[in-house]
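Table S2 (continued). Query chain:
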Amino acid sequence: MRNKGFSLVEILVVILVLAALTGIAIPTYMLVTARAKESAVENEMMNIAKALELHNVDDQVYPDPGNYPGILEEKNYMSAVPANDLWENEYIYDSDGNSYTLESHGMDGADGGDDDIVISSGSMTEDGAYANR
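Corresponding output:
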């Protein structure tokens, strides 16, 4: 008479297969999530850059760094200017009136490194860790 059920070896094989699949799926999910977040930050920064360019067209000067979100919102270039990127790091905006830089320090939150995203006077000069990959 044959026992109905799984042997210990069969259960271990199933567990090993599931562990291998999980080992592949989790890093892939993390990579896809990081790429999506970086892409969303780039889009958000480009929207801010467009608002800065509109301000420059109208006033022939880029807004003062001290209150650029308030100025862009007050003049209806954007309904709400985000202060932080999706990693909860503050966007860094600097301007001398004739040009500007808008920067996100990326996933690591530190200046420098390959994950920084920088827009200089409307052009993306650094495009994060996952660009063109």
